[in-house]
Write a structure and sequence with these properties.
Bound molecules: zinc ion
Strand content: under 5%
Order of helices and strands: HHHHHHHH
Helix content: 55-70%
Radius of gyration: 17 Å
Oligomer: single chain
Largest sheet: none
Number of strands: 0
């Protein structure tokens, strides 16, 4: 899937979790950092691709991307597995602990969960593509659903004109059907 579909899916799952769970009070700083972490998590597994948005936007990014791609086993390998999620989770937690002293108003536990939701949504979404995802590495078989001939090809019109708009329509429906919770969240739980 493309980066924009991943980012939309990541924020969609985050929004659903926030509104379906009992509402909790968070600072504005926590909410903003959590959304940012979620969006980074949503595209992070594709750092194993030299053409990933991250590498495109960095000076010498293509070169760096190729090095990372080779060193973590190529596209759809370590970063697209449960083992990869555990490694990302551990590194993200260490980073959050490290920078927490300068982000006193931020609940790093919530930011961490938000990041993980982004990463997991990426893996689930990629499981709908023909290539599949090696969820159980080091066991190398790639899994996907439904059957291979029904799955999507990344960046093709089905993704652009069907999957992406469908997720958007779901978002609109979800916001409308949970409008009251959304209002309570904004007015009473964001401090
Ligand atoms: Zn991917």
């Amino acid at each position: 899937m493309t980066g924009r579909t991943h980012d939309l899916a990541a924020i969609t799952v985050l929004g659903a979790v926030v509104l379906l769970e009992p509402l909790r009070t968070v600072t504005l700083a926590t909410a903003l950092v959590a959304v940012l972490a979620n969006q980074i998590g949503g595209i992070l597994p594709d750092i194993d691709q030299p053409t990933a948005p991250l590498w495109k936007n960095l000076p010498e990014g293509k070169f760096l991307g190729k090095i990372v791609d080779k060193s973590i086993g190529g596209h759809r390998f370590l970063t697209h597995s449960i083992l990869g999620v555990v490694i990302f989770g551990a590194l993200a937690w260490m980073l959050l602990k490290f920078i927490h002293p300068i982000m006193g108003h931020v609940n790093i536990g919530l930011v961490w969960w938000s990041f993980l939701i982004g990463v997991l949504s990426h893996l689930v979404l990629d499981s709908f593509t023909k290539e599949g995802v090696p969820w159980l590495l080091p066991y190398g078989r790639k899994f996907g659903f439904p059957g291979k001939s029904w799955r999507l090809t990344t960046g093709k019109s089905l993704e652009t004109f069907v999957v992406f708009p469908l997720i958007l329509i779901f978002d609109i429906w979800f916001c409308v059907s949970h409008y009251n919770e959304l209002l309570i969240l904004i007015h009473q739980h964001l401090v």
